[in-house]
Amino acid sequence: MLWSDPPDEPPEELRDMQARLHRMGIVLAVAAIVVMVLIMRG
């Protein structure tokens, strides 16, 4: 790898999609926890 090589950064679209997937994963995890708590209480 040479110093003149461009940095290996993903394109803008890919970074946006990864951020969106990350947020969606967090939301799904929180929703799953809430559902489990409701099931345990019921």
Automatic annotation (TrEMBL):
<keyword id="KW-1133">Transmembrane helix</keyword>
<protein>
    <submittedName>
        <fullName>Uncharacterized protein</fullName>
    </submittedName>
</protein>
<feature type="transmembrane region" description="Helical">
    <location>
        <begin position="20"/>
        <end position="40"/>
    </location>
</feature>
<keyword id="KW-0472">Membrane</keyword>
<dbReference type="Pfam" id="PF26627">
    <property type="entry name" value="MmpB"/>
</dbReference>
<keyword id="KW-0812">Transmembrane</keyword>
<dbReference type="InterPro" id="IPR058070">
    <property type="entry name" value="MmpB-like"/>
</dbReference>
